[in-house]
Amino acid sequence: MKQSFLYALWGALFILCAGLGFIPSPGSALRILMTLLSVAFFIPGVLLLKQARRSGDSTAAIVVRNLSMASLVLSALLIVANFLSALAGAWLGSFLHILLVIVSSPMICSGFWALSLFLWACLMIAAVKIVKDSKA
Length: 136
Known about the structure:
Elements: H1 3-21, H2 28-40, H3 43-55, H4 59-84, H5 90-103, H6 105-110, H7 113-135
Helix pairs in contact: 1-2, 1-3, 3-4, 3-7, 4-5, 4-7
């Protein structure tokens, strides 16, 4: 598969997960679909890393590494900010939650926050290894 297709697919899955993340209380069938979509969200990243390892070109691995790091850091910061906003006005909590849904779309979509954070961390670690191996 071409990298451009994988990036487009990854972006489309991100947008889909973000949209589904705004559903307040999905039924069980929709919850299962949302969880499957949020896991499927990581497949293009894995395929990009696989191609980067095969070709020896670390450009895609650097992109995946940076996206993974950014998602993990921003998710952690927004989760903490959301907890701290409990003492502030409701508008701030709502605003921070909207940011969290957008930034961490597969995490909110799946409903299993640890799963998404774990998969981001796996992508990051694999990408770091590929980048390091390509420089050696």
